[in-house]
Amino acid sequence: SHELEADRLGVDVMGRAGYDGRDAVMFWRRMTEIITAQGEPLPWLSTHPASDERLRILEELTAA
Fold first, then answer.
1. pLDDT (tens digit, 9 = 90+) per residue, 3-41?
2. Can you give the pTM of this predicted structure?
3. Cβ distance 26 to 11 under 8 Å?
4. Separation of alpha carbons 36 and 18, rounded Å
């Protein structure tokens, strides 16, 4: 839950700083491709939400 809250806050901060929060969606799409190609999660992602869930939430947060 902490990681998802960090994503929510990150999208908010990105917007206030003039960045497009949808860039976070593009980042996690690329990360999902890397993870899928590798066949196993990267060790530092073991405590993070599943990429599909993270993408879904980020897409909801950045939907206009």
1. 889 889 999 999 999 999 889 889 888 888 887 787 766
2. 0.65
3. no
4. 31
